[in-house]
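Sequence only, no structure available. Ideas?
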Amino acid sequence: MWIVWRLLRRPLSLLSQALGPINLFWRRLFSHHSESTAKETIHDVHTSHNAIGMDYRPPVVAIIHHSTNAIVGRLEDNIVLKYPRYAWWDFPDAKQKYRAVQDAKASFFVEGEILKVLGDHPRIVKFLGRFDPEGFKFAEADKGNLQQYIDNWFPTMTLKIRSAWCLQATEAIAYLHSKGVIHSDLRPENYLLYSCPDGRVDLRLCDFGGSTYGKLVGLNLPDPGFFDPRKPPIPTQATDIFSLGSVFYTIMSGHWPHWVDGEELSSYGCRVDELFEKGEFPAVTDLYCGSVIQGCWNDQYDTANELLLDCSQVLNGDHGI
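Reply:
I predicted one. Tokens follow.
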């Protein structure tokens, strides 16, 4: 229960400041664990985590991923559908009766509005339109997501590849912030990998249902290891910049900050939050772009554009692989 645990450790002034949005972020307490468990029962996706019923079952041919609010399935060749777990449109009282349905509906509304704001951009997942009665069509990431790639292929990732992906990850956030959007859930899993005609593999950012845009406040905060527990649990641009430091660290080292093989996610979350709260971060002096990583963790960058400029200089302007 990361947010409650964080709040209880704070001075009362920060506690009162944070209590307002706490309900908006409640889903974040359980989402990462739910996603991890879900991968083990992917064959039974429509019933394994939907105890309240109201299943939504569009005509997808294969399930690729699922989380607390959404399922991603292959709709046809090279096109995936992100759709909600619950068919709330068929159950008029569902939103009032079930918090999970309320959260899912809010998440899809927020993501739909933000996708319209972001439009088409080379660092944003390619949106192919709405699906009736609910869902978003996207171009399928033929190389999976960044976390999967690191887990399976890190030894083959050259410095040029890692540098390019760090730069591209920053380009995505600089673009988001220029549009007034805060992602608020940055981690390698939310960067997708696409093959390019010239042989490169490029990053695109996805998953905006928990993001913030103006008065639209999503449901997310970053996971432990990608969030600064010294800050109030309220999404800001600084939230994304801090998370980028941990994304860079994962790309360069092959693992999350302070990760120990075999550790349970709940234990890791508590331990890394305690270390980060004391300002104890992994050593980065021997990592390429270590100074940039440290700068993200230490609030050196006021804007994503400042970070992008520094990345461009440190990473020698490598935009490709």
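Confidence is low (pLDDT under 50) at residues 1-48.
Hope that gets you unstuck.
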